[in-house]
Amino acid sequence: MELGNEMFVENFPSELQGKSLGLVINHSSVLPPGRSLVQALLEKGQKIQAIFSPEHGFSGTVEAGTEVKDSQLKDIMIYSLY
C-alpha cells in the first residue's frame, strides 16, 4: 500500500514543476519511514513558499481554541489558519 503523499512526491504533477507551493499540513504529514513531506519535497527540488497549519498548529501541540502565532520552518513561513 502506498500513501497519497508518497504518490504525490514520487509522481509530482508536471503542472506544478517550478511553481511555488503552499501546503496545508501539520506534524503528521510524513512519509515512511518518518520523513516529513516538507523534507521529501525539498529533496526533490520543489520550492515551498508557505505552510498553512490547522487549529492545533504545525506541531500539533497547541491546545484547542488557543491562538496560534505564525512561525517559520527553516526559511518557510508557517501561517496559522486558526
From TrEMBL:
Annotated ranges, domain Peptidoglycan beta-N-acetylmuramidase NamZ N-terminal: 22-82
Which Gene Ontology molecular-function terms are recorded? peptidoglycan beta-N-acetylmuramidase activity
Query: Which InterPro entries does the entry link to?
Result: NamZ, NamZ_N
The record's section on PANTHER family has: HYPOTHETICAL 460 KDA PROTEIN IN FEUA-SIGW INTERGENIC REGION [PRECURSOR] (PTHR42915), PEPTIDOGLYCAN BETA-N-ACETYLMURAMIDASE NAMZ (PTHR42915:SF1)
Q: What is this protein called?
A: Peptidoglycan beta-N-acetylmuramidase NamZ N-terminal domain-containing protein
Organism listed in the record: marine sediment metagenome
